[in-house]
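dumping these here so i dont lose them again. two proteins, back to back, each one seq then structure tokens. dont judge the mess
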Amino acid sequence: MRMIAALSLVAMCGIQASPVRADWVPPFKGNDTGGIIAYELATTVDARQLAVDHCARYGKVGKFLAGGPHHGG
């Protein structure tokens, strides 16, 4: 019984110590139907080439719809 309690305590401490953030979004995210590139990333790298390379994985062609520093533009 003490062993189970000790393992449970170690597991709970490990879970609480892990750096998990629910508000973090990767700067480049996409799937087979669309995606988004963070404006900060787009100003430092070739965003169109990132999209072309990503779309090629799915056999698709990228269509660039918008570019702006604000959401919902």
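---- next one ----
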Amino acid sequence: MRVRLKASFDVSGFPASARVILQALKTYGMIVADNGSDWYISGAPDSRWNDDELSTLKTVPGSEFEVVAMGTVVKN
């Protein structure tokens, strides 16, 4: 499933580094994979990122995303 952060979501209270990611989620969205865990954004580790600033992304609720493409649902 591909989802996108709603354009109406206010990112002004987030640190600059988190706003960059949130804007990308508004523009490009993300792909959700069902691996059994809660919403989780993954990426490559990089010492230039501030982990405390990135942790603010955890406060964005799933309800602030909208589905833009849904693939085939497979049941086992």
